[in-house]
Amino acid sequence: MSGRSARPLPRRTLLRGLLHRRHHNLPDTDPERILALVESGRTARSDAADLTELAVAAAAGLIAEKPSYAKLAGRLLTARLARAAAHGPPGAPI
User: Fold this and answer.
1) pTM of this prediction?
2) What mean pLDDT do residues 63-79 have?
3) Which residue segment(s) compose the domain that 40 sits in?
4) DSSP per residue over 54-85, as a string?
5) Which of 44, 51, 54, 72 has most Cβ atoms within 10 angstroms of its Cβ?
């Protein structure tokens, strides 16, 4: 064993991974641009669900500029819904 403690990944790193996974086959979209928009809209209290909602909103806001952002927004929203279906909504009884 290495003696290192397992630390959770920062939310930014997790969101970057999510964006890059959902970005495949969408060359006209820029996940780093979405990440920058999320960073500008987040607060210190933003959790992973908040960041995902910001990413969906950011992608949706760019649809008029580049329609391929509609697919990216849809993929992000689908991932969020799948996660909610698997784990329940925040605050749901266990």
Assistant:
1) 0.75
2) 93
3) 11-85
4) HHHHHHHHTTTT-THHHHHHHHHHHHHHHHHH
5) 72
